[in-house]
Design goal:
- By secondary structure, this protein is of the alpha/beta class.
- The protein folds into 2 domains: 123 residues, Rossmann fold; 79 residues, no CATH class.
- It has 7 helices and 7 strands.
- The longest helix is centred in the C-terminal third of the chain and has 18 residues.
Length: 210
């Protein structure tokens, strides 16, 4: 598995995957890149991996990443960082191309039957899924079944212990917003989408408690 990082983006995903026991390599591209790159191969070190997370945040670099992909490529940042041609290239190579605004939107719908590695990855990394234990109206324990690549879900889970149940969804969303996530910030940007995903995950888990 490969994580393509650029500047501060991508390193947390690399650390999360490593902590979860995946065999992962960090590949760095230059932080300062020209807006248009005629030969992106010159800017991207050689690598080989079945699953690639790319935080290159550059359409030309990401197209080259797709060309080198083997099973699946997860492109961070949304459509502006991925040219339409990338999907055609992925289809020709038999590589699943996944593009989300934020990588904690990764879920079962992104899995293709032919990729066992991607299936295993999405069981552990992506849209948050939790198992919460409650005693006397207080959150006793939060087990992360699946967490955001940046690691924010595990941070939130630890900090939620001791919080009153009725406060947990909103506190969880706030904790994710406090976490030094790399997602864009702004009224409708990625950090708010991430907070809402975690809030919903807490609510779903609490509903299963009788």
């Amino acid at each position: 598995m490969i994580v393509v990082s650029r500047g501060k983006w991508g390193e947390r995903t690399y650390e999360t995957l490593k902590t979860l026991g995946f065999d992962v390599e960090l590949v760095k591209v230059e932080e300062s890149l020209p807006p248009i790159i005629d030969d992106p191969a010159e800017y991207l070190p050689e690598f080989s991996g079945d699953i690639v997370f790319s935080y290159a945040l550059h359409p030309d670099i990401n197209l080259e990443v797709v060309k080198r992909g083997e099973e699946a490529v997860v492109i961070a940042g949304g459509p502006k960082y991925l040219p339409p041609k990338a999907y055609e290239t992925g289809k020709e190579k038999g590589v699943k191309v996944i593009n989300h605004r934020i990588c904690c939107m990764l879920c079962e719908k992104d899995v293709c039957p032919s990729s066992k590695t991607l299936k295993k990855l999405v069981e552990m990394v992506g849209s948050p899924k939790l198992e919460i234990k409650v005693e006397n109206g207080i959150v006793k324990k939060v087990k992360v079944i699946r967490g955001a690549p940046c690691g924010s879900t595990w941070y939130m889970a630890k900090e939620l212990e001791g919080v009153r149940v009725e406060e947990a969804p909103y506190r969880g969303a706030l904790l994710v917003s406090y976490y030094p996530c790399r997602a864009p910030r702004g009224r409708r940007d990625g950090i708010h989408a991430s907070a809402e995903l975690h809030k919903s995950a807490i609510e779903r888990s609490l509903k299963t408690i009788k």
